[in-house]
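Q: Two folds, back to back.
A: First:
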Amino acid sequence: MTSAIDLHGDPHVQRYLETDGEDGYVWRNGTTILILFTKGRKSGEQRSHALIFREHEGAYLVVASKGGAEAPPAWFLNLEADPEVEVQVKGDRFRARARVATPDEKPVMWTEMVEVWPDYEDYQRKTSRQIPVVVLERVEG
């Protein structure tokens, strides 16, 4: 069994998918990981990303931080171009629609995400960009 703490990037995604999250769902400091599938806005190819998440009122929250870089992560640009995504949580893969948390929603959602990954506060201090919280809402059917 691979230690979850050693997993990053593509190897993390691959191992997570191979094991339905048995390896890779629980990550550093007990955070939990989902896999987000987006369509490349230029290539049209499916892209997959292992992201820290938290459940919130039936939806899933992720943060487009890119470690506090001035530019957002590519996956965020992809979902801006096409918000119809797929999400996998452990062995459950489903269609979802992505949207950015509204100004009214964000403070509570940001606090919840910082509780599971305190480094988000440091990332926000490093950039003038307002780091978005992304809400992934399951699409039935």
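A: Second:
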Amino acid sequence: MRRSSADTKAVILAAARERFAADGYEKATIRSIAGDAGIDPAMVMRYFGNKEKLFAAAAHIDLKFPDFSAVPRDQIGARLVGHFLGLWEHNEALQVLLRTGVTNEAAAERMRDIFATQLAPVIATLTGPDQAPIRAGLAASQILGLALARYILKFPPIVAMSRDDLIHWTAPTIQHYLCD
């Protein structure tokens, strides 16, 4: 039974997501991903060109920001932290991207792209366009630092904290960056 081009790409991407999550970027290979997908490695190269492009496609992440216009201004920091905690807890691709982003330029570029195309525009609606890049960068540094400590490095005190405690401790900083 032959698959359509779209079906083949979907199978490759699913296998790539699983392999990158299990092995990380550096250890995952085109050959292992193709094997997981049950196809020839040349097909992976045909559809994606190289490992970096495959990773970028597999790491496509929609942050699905809520509409903050209805959120009381003094609760935006807490809502944003809560939103990101939910993403980190339920989206393994974000963890893979963070883990590999510190050592791989393609992954780091993907993180920067997500920052520029998804986070910064949301922040611009809260702060205006002039200060949005700086404020978004500061907010991202806090969110990424929290994610690194909790989900990647697994610092025991941070891992042990409840979601409510994490929001309680980090929301004021995010609130300051976005609304002060």
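Q: And?
A: The two ends are 60 Å apart (CA to CA).
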